[in-house]
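Page 42, continued from yesterday. The earlier attempt failed because a stray header line got pasted into the input along with the sequence. Redoing it now with the clean sequence only.
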Amino acid sequence: MIRCGLDRLLEDPARLRGRRYALLGHAASVSAGLRPAAVALREVGAAPRLLFGPEHGFHGVEQDMVPSADARDPWTGLPIHSLYGDSSSSLRPDPAAFAGLDLLLVDLQDVGARYYTYAATAVWAAAAARRAGCEVWILDRPNPLGGVVVEGNLRRPGYESFVGAFELPVRHGLTLGELVRLEASSSGWGEEVRVVAAEGWRRSLEWESVGRPWLAPSPNLPTLEAVRVYPGACLLEATNLSEGRGTSRPFLLSGAPGLDGAALAGRLEEAGLEGVRFLPVFFRPQAGKHAGRVCGGVRWVVLDPARFRPYRAGVELVRAASRLWGGFAWRSEPYEFESERTAVDLLTGDSTLREAVDRGDDPTPWIESWATDEEAFRTRRRAALIYPEEEE
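This time it went through. Structure tokens are written below.
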């Protein structure tokens, strides 16, 4: 079994004795024995003084883009300071929040996609803690998508947001500890971050080999299969297509009322996508987009995770759906506190996909251009790697 950073710290709690520290965590921050992090730390005589909660809240109860309020943890009695409120200013803690503290522990299960907001929260909280004079320790966890494959274009300058905080490919192949090290080094404070590594993890390991159950880090990623499609299926958030929220299979279902699922599946088969098939289905979301209405669409079925490239599959799905469904439209409402740029540009970190779809162009040249960005990023990330590189 992999020993995550939290497990290693729990085995040597003396390192925390006398420390006045805060814990940034969430519902998936649990020990190998399935004890919540704050509870487990208290049980070994090294309780935190304060808890920070990311998007979805410290206990993971809020849906996407629903603010979390400051609260008190019912299990430990500790105050919880929310880092996801009702404005963009809530996303970065004020250094004053660390008054009386000398250490920040970060224990968040990331999912290996640029859009996933826990990485931005971790880096921004670490930067604030450092400015307040606190040490920062990242309690690392495996990347469920592995650490070998890199996929997608880099986010371009001018497209910075909560879902695109850093210049990464969509699938970056880093653990959270490595990602924080990379961004801290880029900002000149990398030496001030300590990563407690996940002992025994290798970059090529599938999650099934990690020896730990998958615990949802956010409400709509309850299964490993949903995590595997997320780097592509998340693009539907930028459209009026349902991404399966409000069903028992979030991100695994894609569709809309009146969309011909069989035709969509046929178009996706023609795209020659490896490691995945798309099953025509009908579904009725109970919440979110098209709530209460029957949607036609497809169900993602991952057959070979090693060959599957989810971001490309998501691009092909959006393109095919835009051609088949006359009601297709891009999301126009503000997205993660951003209103000046459309959601699709924020997610892709570029305007190319939106412009290609609007013109009816083939996005293949853009997809082929990702290889240059992927190689440049592999070179850039090397200095931040904790776990040795392996062949793809």
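Notes: Residues 161 and 346 are 7 Å apart (CA to CA).
Reminder to self: strip header lines before submitting.
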